[in-house]
Amino acid sequence: MPVINFNLEDLRSLIGTRLEDREVLGRIPMIGADFHDFDPVTKEASIEFFPNRPDLYSVEGIARALRAFFDIELGLRTYDMASSDIVLKVEPSVKKVRPFVVGAIIRDVTLDDKIIRSLMELQEKLHLTVGRKRAKVAIGVHDLDKVTPPFVYRAVAPDSISFVPLAKEEPMTLAEILEKHEKGRDYKHLLEGKELYPVILDKDNKVLSFPPIINGRLTTVTTETKNLFIDVTGTDQNTISGVLNIVCTSIAERNGVIQTINLRGEEKGITPNLRPKQWLVDVDRTNALLGLDLEPLSMCQCLTRMGYSAEPKGRKVKVSSSPVRMDLIHVADVIEDVAIGYGYENFGNSKPVFSTIGGERKIERVADLVRQMMVGFGYWEVTTLTLSSIGEQFAKTRFPEVEVVEVLNPVSEDHNCLRVQLIPSLLTVLRRSKHRDLPQRIFEVGDVVISTKRRKHLAIMAIHSKAGFTEMKSLAEGVLKELGVQCSFHPGDIGTFIPGRCAVVMVNGRNVGHFGELHPQVIVDYEMGYPIIAFELDLQDLMSGRGEKII
User: Fold this and answer.
1) Local structure of 71: helix, strand or coil
2) Are 229 and 109 in contact (CB under 8 A)?
3) Does an H or E element contain 141, and which?
4) Which of 194, 217, 454, 458 is 20 to 30 A removed from 254 (C-alpha atoms)?
5) What ranges make up the beta strands (E) of 256-354?
6) Residue 160 and residue 175: Cα distance in Å, rounded?
7) CA–CA separation, 251 vs 195, rounded Å?
8) Which residues of 114-124 are buried (b: 16+ CB within 10 A; e: fewer)?
């Protein structure tokens, strides 16, 4: 979780209160944080905030939340915005590189070293968390007076443009930055495989930013800066808009004036968008979920303490939430804030009416038994991610395609779905350890997700020069015998295996697994050169058929 560093005196001045140190620091964790460190001499504090609240990643954001929570400034914090005639043109060339961009102007700012440090820390915390280390979001903060609008966001050839990047004295091309600059080497992988690189230029073709790598030295923000231009680029429109709102409003907490800019191109619009989001909260359902008995007006008071505007509408509450609250996805998130605004300390500490005894689930007992058994057979256990890719699950293993649970915004194409089989995961392990001596024999007892239901599978794999069908058949018989399961083997026709060297395992007329010699094409696709045998068993199906024999 991100740790936010700030000076307590600065926080108090932003809140507008003279509360004691202990009271301020003692109540901050109640909004979703963990106390980290405090120096009573320097008044420097560190608070670890939960990752669902990126709006609290700066002292300005913390102050905004605490003014409402401390009943100093209840309700929704709004910000005055003015229009500007500044244009940011988005060219089609960026679509295949880094497709989305938003921006804003902040005028009449007063900056000192402390405020600049806070702004840079907010920028880096957002890069690491919401921005997925800049892969999803990258933020640029520029001295507006050093450049001339209109601005343009385009993709260019790596050697076609040069500029002086931050922390350097001499101009460098985009390609040189990726090879020689510290930040270029750190984030080079984000542009791997791209023929063109994104840049933001001004009217005179001066480079403001090379996202997501580095800004230009020309627009460095200093204590002399009076007007700012903020750009946020990324791969998801909603996320970059939310991040822009957080950065702009944090600066506005220091009395900066927010101005909009005009986007021109295929996607036209005006940014930032600081309109509140609307919710309708059912009072009776909220009370039932929280175990409370609040009237609509009392529920409104709880929500205004969390920075919402709220008004009763019969047995419902009409709610407006701040545009910086990126964590609000469902009305359940608003209900959670009702609980926080009510105060967890006010829920009481009554003991549960019913006593219960925790115990290990039956499938987990079976899984532990299978692990011990496989170690006894001389196999090494591995543990891999439940996340996989559609290509690994089907095309690369020649496995028949079935419906999978896909990840909406995957970090990479290697993790775009939940796996339906374990064999690809074990093949990846063998590929990465192919420099080790043979034979290699591994197994995994892990989760797969089939038809949106989580199931426990066992997969076994061996690679060596004499690996064959007979060896895996003997092992499969041994495993099932140890589990006390009566089964039969039938010829199988699964593309993962060599035709004629594949079998399916039937228990009570149900197909619970398969084994055999892997097809040569699968072995080649995984860059290996020796025969491989594999066995995969659905432990869940096995239990439902003969579970009483297993335990």
Assistant:
1) coil
2) no
3) strand 137-143
4) 217
5) 257-259, 261-265, 269-271, 277-282, 309-313, 316-321
6) 9
7) 36
8) ebeebbebbbe
Query: How many Å apart are CA 259 and CA 423, to the nearest integer?
Result: 55
Which domains occur in the chain, in start order? Answer: 3-54 (no CATH), 81-271 (3.50.40.10), 279-345 (3.30.56.10), 362-550 (3.30.930.10)
pLDDT in tens, 232-263: 999 999 999 999 999 999 999 998 899 999 99
- Per-residue pLDDT reduced to its tens digit, 302-340: 999 999 999 999 999 999 999 999 999 999 999 999 999
Q: Which residue has the tokens 């079998």?
A: 503
- Confidence label for 18 from pLDDT (cuts 50, 70 and 90): confident
| pLDDT at 545 exceeding the cut of 70 | no
Give the C-alpha separation, 520 to 27, whole Å. Answer: 63
How would you class 107 by CB atoms within 10 Å of its CB: exposed for 0-12, middle for 13-18, buried for 19 or more?
A: middle
b/e code 371-397 from CB counts within 10 Å (16+ = b):
bebbeeeebeebebebbbbbebbbebb
Strands 81-82 and 257-259: parallel
Q: At what angle do helices 331-342 and 296-304 cross, to 10 degrees?
A: 90
Would you call the peptide bond into 499 cis, given omega within 30 degrees of 0 as the criterion? Answer: no
Q: Supply the angle between the helices 8-15 and 59-69 in degrees, to the nearest 10.
A: 50
User: What's the mean pLDDT when you consider all of the chain?
Assistant: 91
Question: Looking up tokens 């496995």, which residue turns up?
Answer: 399
- Does position 549 have pLDDT exceeding 50, yes or no? no
Q: Could you give the CA distance from residue 82 to residue 194 in angstroms, rounded to a whole number?
A: 38
- pLDDT score of 2: 81
Q: For residue 548, is pLDDT > 50?
A: no
What is the residue-wise DSSP string for 82-130?
E----EEEE-GGGTTT--EEEEEEEES----HHHHHHHHHHHHHHHHTT
